[in-house]
Specification:
Protein name: SAM-dependent methyltransferase
Radius of gyration: 16 Å
Number of domains: 1
Number of helices: 2
Shape: extended
Helix content: 25-40%
Order of helices and strands: HHEE
Number of strands: 2
Structural class: alpha+beta
Strand order of the largest sheet: 1-2
Largest sheet: 2 strands, antiparallel
Length: 67
């Protein structure tokens, strides 16, 4: 099982997220090999190689907090 799926299963199992840093996710995807690092080019219908591009993200504060 890939580390990305295992990350989700770990979250479901114990209620806490394991490390989801970009570096860890890059390493996880890189370990799967180039067959899993492709995207579909809608113009040509061909699979194109694409390296993982995980980035740290913090969503902005909500403008109107919900109740």
């Amino acid at each position: 099982m890939s580390d990305d799926r295992q990350t989700l299963f770990d979250r479901i199992g114990d209620g806490r997220w394991p490390s989801t840093t970009p570096a860890r996710l890059h390493a996880s995807v890189s370990a799967m090999g180039p067959a899993y690092q492709k995207v579909l080019d809608f113009g040509t219908g061909a699979d194109l190689p694409l390296e993982p591009t995980y980035a740290r993200f913090t969503p902005p504060k909500m403008l109107r907090p919900s109740r």
